[in-house]
Amino acid sequence: MIRKLIEKIKQTNAPIVVGLDPMMKFIPEEISSQAFKKYGETLEGAAEAIWQFNKGIIDSICDIVPAVKPQVAMYEQFGIEGMKAYDRTIKYSQEKGLIVIGDVKRGDIGSTSAAYAAGHLGKVSVGSKSYSAFNEDFITVNPYLGTDGIKPFVDVCKEERKGLFILVKTSNPSSGEFQDRLIDGRPLYEWVGEKVAEWGADCMDGEYSEIGAVVGATYPEMGKVLRKIMPKSFILVPGYGAQGGKGADLVHFFHEDGLGAIVNSSRGIIAAYQQEKYQGMSFADAARAAVIDMREDIAGALQNR
Asked: CA-CA distance, 302 to 305, in Å (whole number)?
């Protein structure tokens, strides 16, 4: 799957993933009012609004980005109806040719971890038949439980040719409370990075592993170190735009050939129409314009490094 992602990045010249993290405050009134007219101010109405909003975003950007990343919590909060919208979003994105990274941040051990892996990446058995449930192409995984928690996901990735992005150094301000703690003189995130490289060594697909890492754009110097620790791992970089990251912060995440990383922006794209810069544009047109601006920012930074 990582090979397919790289091909899409090359085709679009955009190492960008659009985070589909819909919140009701991001959804234009004309969409939510239509959904509420049909289903009332209910969980089903909210899910319908989310779906219509996502569809508009996907239609506007599917030809200029390689991937989208729906954040499952934004759907789970609306219960079963929200998860139906999550499922529709995944399937529609794939129909439009996009790679889907499910931002689910799962992590457990034994049969629980195996069930998460089956539900999101693999197949689940029902009597004599088997089914793919959510069927994302990649998912994010929390490594806090160690190899016991990661191995079931890796096993499914090998079987299904899917991929993982494992949390290594996250973009949030308090990440350092644990991740920066020194262990034998080195920060924890470096030890996690080494394990990601180790887990990924057995899952190569060409020059890169199916097992990648999540490293926040808000910590560029740490990204420089981790790029060297995980040379064969693709890095998913959150924190661009709304969280403060910009193109100049990203250069160390990439290899010299411009590959090796994919940068996420969520509300900076899907809620771009609410920004002064894109005022007067529809939410879909503003999202497209924000992607183009982001692509140019990253390309310029890589060219001038």
From this structure: 5
